[in-house]
Structure formats: C-alpha cells, structure tokens
Amino acid sequence: MDSINFFKGYGKVNNPAGNQQPASNRRRRILLAASLAVFLTIVLGAMIGALIYESATEPPESEEEQLPASDSGESLKTVCAVTQYLDSCINSISALNDPPKSDPVHFFNLSLQVSQRELASLASLPKTLISKSNDRRAESALKDCVNLFDDSLSQLNRSAELMKVAVVGPAEKLLTEMRISDMQTWISAAMTDQDTCLDGLDEMGSTVVDELRTRVHKSSEYMSISLAILNNLKSLVEKFGLKMP
C-alpha cells in the first residue's frame, strides 16, 4: 500500500494538481508585461517631450503683449487701434506706399503727411467757392476760411519740420516731452482753425457750407488720427519694444 501511494505521489510533492502552469507560459507573461512597460514608458516620454518643447517655444504672454507682429501691416493696425478711425487710419497711411517698417514714430510721420496733403488740397476750395458765389456775406466768411486754412497748414508744417529734424538728428535729445507737447498744441490748433471756418459759414447761413463741410470733416479726421498717435506715441514705442527716438 505504501508503495502504491508512493508512486501515485511521485513528481507531485508540494505541487498540487491544477495549481502549476508550464514554465513557458510564465516566461511569455513576463515578456508581455515587460514589453508593455517599455511601450508605456516610450509613449509617456514622447508626451512629456512634446509638452516641454511647446512650453519652450511658446513666448510668454507678457512678450506677446509688448511686441506686435513683425509684419508692417499688423504693426500699422496696432498703431491705428489707438485712434477713433481705424479703417481710415490704415487706408490713408497704406496708400502712401512707403517702404514697410514697424515703427510707431514712422507711422506718425506718415499720418502727418496724409494730414498735410489733404489740408493743402482743401485750402484752395474756399477760393474756388468764392468765384462761384454771388453772396457777399458768404464770400467774407470764405475769405476767413482761406486765412484759417493757411494758418492750419502752417501749424501742421511746423510739426512735420520738427519730426524731420528729430529723425535725422540726435532724436533722443530732440523728440523730448516738451517738443511732443508743442506738436500736440500745433495739431490741435490746426483742427480748431477748421472748426472756426465752419462756424463762420454757419452764422452766415451760407448754402456752400455743406459742400465745404464734407471736405473739412475728412481733413479733421486725418488730423485727429495724427494727434491720437502722437498722444500715445510713448506707450506705442514701449509696446513695440523700442526706445523713444
């Protein structure tokens, strides 16, 4: 009996039937687990690497706020955004076909050129209307407009001449707060001259007011653009990451 029991239990000491898997199965499971761990490590590493790259290449929000796009068109939009007439500002300055730059001072210079050209064209209109008018009172008011437009153009020319000197010379010494204040005064005075012209025609009840008013409003709009850029020139220069010239 003892011999029979001995042979029945041969080879199964400490290994009850059904609780032991072949060694080959265990190796396959170990290899599968190891492969899965390697795969997950590679995927996780790739994701972390992508996040680090994105973080390193994306500029901080503060830099994006300070520096507008290098494209001249986008820079012009940034400058014109400080005015009340965004589209008019962009279209009038772009029409000059000036070499592209990303400099607020440059755009201010261009806006002055636009204002000068429009006002120079406007200055001859009262004389033309005088020749067509049979109203002596209206003629008197129009003559006043001629003088006012001349004075207005003189104020703009003073600003333009100062900017030419500032850009060519040691601008950091010439474009001071005092000189900027002078240009603000001159451009504001030029706008006041135009308003005074229209006020005089309104008092006369002249029928030529409507014809002249449209042109004056356009001219005043351009000067308003120049004045707005000038008023914000310092902050714009800082936003572009530049120094006041």
UniProtKB/TrEMBL annotation:
<dbReference type="GO" id="GO:0004857">
    <property type="term" value="F:enzyme inhibitor activity"/>
</dbReference>
<keyword id="KW-0732">Signal</keyword>
<protein>
    <recommendedName>
        <fullName>pectinesterase</fullName>
        <ecNumber>3.1.1.11</ecNumber>
    </recommendedName>
</protein>
<keyword id="KW-0472">Membrane</keyword>
<comment type="similarity">
    <text>In the C-terminal section; belongs to the pectinesterase family.</text>
</comment>
<dbReference type="InterPro" id="IPR051955">
    <property type="entry name" value="PME_Inhibitor"/>
</dbReference>
<dbReference type="Pfam" id="PF04043">
    <property type="entry name" value="PMEI"/>
</dbReference>
<comment type="similarity">
    <text>In the N-terminal section; belongs to the PMEI family.</text>
</comment>
<keyword id="KW-1133">Transmembrane helix</keyword>
<keyword id="KW-1015">Disulfide bond</keyword>
<keyword id="KW-0325">Glycoprotein</keyword>
<feature type="domain" description="Pectinesterase inhibitor">
    <location>
        <begin position="71"/>
        <end position="229"/>
    </location>
</feature>
<dbReference type="InterPro" id="IPR035513">
    <property type="entry name" value="Invertase/methylesterase_inhib"/>
</dbReference>
<dbReference type="GO" id="GO:0030599">
    <property type="term" value="F:pectinesterase activity"/>
</dbReference>
<keyword id="KW-0812">Transmembrane</keyword>
<dbReference type="InterPro" id="IPR006501">
    <property type="entry name" value="Pectinesterase_inhib_dom"/>
</dbReference>
<feature type="transmembrane region" description="Helical">
    <location>
        <begin position="30"/>
        <end position="53"/>
    </location>
</feature>
